[in-house]
Write a structure and sequence with these properties.
alpha/beta, Rossmann fold, Arc Repressor Mutant, subunit A, 2 domains, 8 helices, globular
Amino acid sequence: MTKTILYARVSTHEQTAEHQLTQAREAGFSIDDVISDEGLSGVTTRLLERPQGKRLFDILRKGDTLVVRWIDRLGRNYEDVTENIRQFIQRGVTVKTVINNMTFDGAPKDPMQMAVRDALIGFMAAMAQAQAEATKEAQRVGIAHKRQKDAPGVYKGRKPSYSRKDFDAVVLMLGNGTGVSEIAKSTGLTRQTVLRIRANQPQANEVLKAWGL
């Protein structure tokens, strides 16, 4: 019997495994099991170096489906992500993402279709690495600010007009391709706020952290 497994990699700065499971179910996935690695940095730790990440290669079988919030869960950088996805595909495993509902499998047999699939995997992996590096830099800056946040006279900037719950909702809906106007209507935020979050998600996240939200 084939299974659909959600793999969640959770660091102290990211969403919980339960949150990622909720997002997957809201996106229409029927999950049979959840495997998660917690407290590990996705930027420095290869998938095979994570206890549960390594386990994926032992338990996934032909016909199974591996669901991840985004492909950055499957490696620390471009090389790691692309290699792991290709290994899963070669084993007959289908890889799906919650964000944008992307599917990568061995269905394409025509060389051109395979090339397009592999190019898309490479592009998304490169984009994920670039975003991870930008987030890491933002965190570095945030740590420097945090050291001084309790000092008298430190200006944290204007308090954000959105909550952590609002931010997570906007990110999820953006990932699902929902339009800005629809997101604003659904969350009660202004279009300008949604556009600011969309333009720079790491920075919008740092603003929340600066205010302890």
